[in-house]
């Protein structure tokens, strides 16, 4: 009999790709989302699929799913800084109350649960690159705290359910991921720069652009999450691409990729914006036999082709 999996945040960027992956692997998939930052368009190709069901539901309220469940992937949460700054309380609630509800459901159904944690648990890191033993440097009361602390709480309650109830749990610490189905106006740097290039606007680099990020293509990320779910490892695992680049160099790469001649303009660095971020993926390599395969040039080309295919109306929606 096919395995049955619940995926929360199913209409979002990562969640929709996870739905595709698990359907392709022969699972029965239940997607759940309240569409607060997601878009039904990301999963509408699945609506006629016999192995897919969609529940429109806010996971911060009691979650009920009829029938058996073998696995749960908890991916519901605003994920881009402009989203979680706009809806800070919902962000705290989905990481805390939402996670509690899903852990309760996993216990009830005797299902294995994987939660989507983040590199943000390391905050503005003082060790570089970040491995899983680093405890992080988070400003609890800063604007980003609503996301970072919700995710830190999420990890703690997940380990408590594992230790206290013997629940099978997995924790993915996800680093910046990109690819088709990101929202053009979600404010994250890749859609922001590509949108600006396509609209003929200047590229906005925050600060002096010396801050770094390491970008992982969606297909690699999904494969890492898939392997972690099926592994027997209950401690956090970093999933990301260690190839690091400064935001200024990245802006220049986008200008050359899009063959536009946009200028770069500098804007104020947002508060608590991490200065550097690069995953140490030794643990993922060892335990999951996983490492990213897609080079940034190849992944960015696919992402750019996706955004180029969007309507004028989409392009006109701005992030700020
Ligand atoms: P996204 O905004 O595209 O998707 C999140 C989805 O969750 C949306 O469809 C949204 O409507 C849904 N959602 C939010 N609150 C909900 C609630 N209370 N009930 C039901 N649904 C709700 O974001 P994403 O980039 O796909 O991120 C997905 C997950 O991965 C998040 O948990 C995020 O913290 C984590 N993550 C993502 C990245 C990344 O680079 N994309 C990095 C680290 C962690
Ligand atoms: N950034 C930028 N210009 C933009 C959007 C973002 O320079 O128009 C910077 C941002 O300050 C951060 C980096 O790009 O240093 C990545 O930002 P993003 O929001 O994508 O992710 P996060 O900060 O959560 O890693």
TrEMBL record:
SUPFAM superfamilies: NAD(P)-binding Rossmann-fold domains (SSF51735). Residues 6-303 form the NAD(P)-binding domain. Its cofactor is NAD(+). Keywords: Decarboxylase, Golgi apparatus, Lyase, Membrane, NAD, Signal-anchor, Transmembrane, Transmembrane helix. It is an enzyme of class 4 (lyase). Pfam families: GDP_Man_Dehyd (PF16363). Its EC number is 4.1.1.35. InterPro entries: NAD(P)-bd_dom (IPR016040), NAD(P)-bd_dom_sf (IPR036291), UXS-like (IPR044516). It is found in: Golgi apparatus, Golgi stack membrane. Pathway: Nucleotide-sugar biosynthesis; UDP-alpha-D-xylose biosynthesis; UDP-alpha-D-xylose from UDP-alpha-D-glucuronate: step 1/1. The keyword Membrane applies. Signal peptide: none annotated. GO terms for molecular function: dTDP-glucose 4,6-dehydratase activity. The keyword Lyase applies. It is a single-pass type II membrane protein. Belongs to the NAD(P)-dependent epimerase/dehydratase family. UDP-glucuronic acid decarboxylase subfamily. This is UDP-glucuronate decarboxylase. It comes from Mesonia maritima.
